Amino acid sequence: MEELKLTLNKLKIPKQLKTYINRSTFIKENLNKESLLIIEELFIYYDSLYIFDTSEFCASVVLVIKRTKDNNTFYYYLKEEIESNVFLQSKGKSKSNEKESTIITEDVLHRIFINASQVLFTNIDKIGTKEKIDLLSVYKSLGELEAIIKITNNDYFYKLKKLGESIFINFVERQTEK
Fold it and tell me: Which sequence spans correspond to the domains of the chain?
């Protein structure tokens, strides 16, 4: 048991998995050094090539440890479990997707919302002054606002967009009546 603990501490596996293995007596009873080395090897493999949720990885490992008693099938069963139940996203570029994945922060979405709102309400301000309104930019702004609201689910953004949209729709309806 002490050798298992020493091996566990040296392994390059997620900390939450080490913590779980150290706390669970059932898992320790069903685990051996060879299994730990297999877990480490697979973790290094997937961590090198893919982006994935380490909690999902750990859950798959625990499930396989609980279900598998045979070391001969442990590697294959664990690999199958990970590939079936852990969402793996390639770290490399593919020919169909040359661009790197982009993560858009809430700050960026907020700035886009402000810019789109300014375009919308600048055009709405033109209603009172009888200036020419850029319909294309208004509809584009409404589309951008709608997309951001769907992403952020922000109630304030939704109410602001609805206000601008209703003012603009009333204006368009009055213009079509003339």
Answer: 2-90, 106-177
